[in-house]
Design brief:
Blueprint (H helix, E strand, L loop, with lengths): L8 E3 L6 E4 L2 E3 L5 E7 L12 H14 L3 E10 L2 E11 L6 E10 L4 E9 L6 H10 L1 H4 L32 H12 L4 E2 L1 H4 L57
Antiparallel strand pairs: 1-9, 2-3, 3-4, 4-8, 5-6, 6-7, 7-8
């Protein structure tokens, strides 16, 4: 099997996309599709079967970077359990937001990510203003569903980001990334050796000094996926350094 951009991904539907560099493609609507491999223990805040902790920690992490987690859930990609996230982030250079839809496929000592992102253009806030006018301001902002009745900071949670509004705004970047990842996901295929790796068991417990009282919990560790610049993936074509990659020959 041939890997794509030195990741465990061996196939995905790239219809409408043009390759710009290894592992990164764009389309005419402004979508950016990318795939990544991380030869590191995943820094997710909880294992996939602890969905409440996973959502809480992921939302905290997005807010700590000034953004907001719109939704998160667990599913499968080519049979591998994975975390789905939809995040909004403020643009750094101008007014507006970027939207990122991703799958993170965590294993015990590595992970791979499929990510679609897009940013608002010159016109910003139209979706939000239209929805607010329809539902009224009192019903527009809602407690974050993963915060237990509050908000996390960062970009606030509101109803304009809900999928029910996508048909009204077919060209909005949130609509586009949500639809693109949904279309691409069933077409992703993975290397058998990656699929066979042990699952991610969750973050390692914090170490304490012998005899010292345990530190109070500071909350789940904020995740970094999806990240802009992943470490190089060793890939099956070259001999990987020990403990760095998922692909190994003869048990090395």
């Amino acid at each position: 099997m041939t890997s794509i951009a030195q990741t465990p991904i061996t196939g995905l539907d790239l219809t409408g996309f043009t390759e710009r560099e290894p592992g990164l493609w764009t389309d005419a609507a402004g979508l950016v599709l990318s795939v990544h491999f991380f030869p590191l223990v995943p820094d997710l805040p909880a294992p996939l079967h602890e969905l409440d902790r996973l959502r809480f920690g992921s939302a905290q992490g997005a807010a700590s970077h000034g953004g907001g987690l719109i939704e998160a859930g667990v599913g499968t990609v080519d049979g591998v359990p994975a975390l789905h996230q939809l995040i909004k982030m403020p643009l750094q250079s101008r007014t507006g937001q970027a939207f990122i839809a991703s799958w993170t496929l965590p294993k015990d000592r590595c992970s791979t990510v499929v990510k679609v992102q897009a940013a608002e253009g010159a016109t910003t806030g139209l979706r939000e203003a239209t929805v607010m006018a329809q539902v009224e301001p009192a019903h527009y902002f809602q407690p974050h569903p993963y915060a237990g009745g509050g908000q996390f900071g960062g970009l606030p949670y509101h109803v304009a980001d809900l999928e029910q509004w996508d048909p009204r705004f077919p060209d909005h970047p949130l609509t586009l990334v949500r639809a693109a990842l949904r279309r691409i996901t069933p077409t992703v295929t993975l290397h058998d050796q990656f699929k066979a790796l042990p699952p991610f068991p969750g973050p390692a417990p914090a170490r304490t000094q012998p005899g010292a009282p345990a530190s109070p919990s500071a909350g789940p560790t904020p995740p970094t996926h999806p990240a802009p610049a992943p470490p190089p993936y060793p890939g099956p074509a070259a001999a990987p350094a020990p403990r760095r990659g998922w692909f190994r020959r003869n048990g090395v």
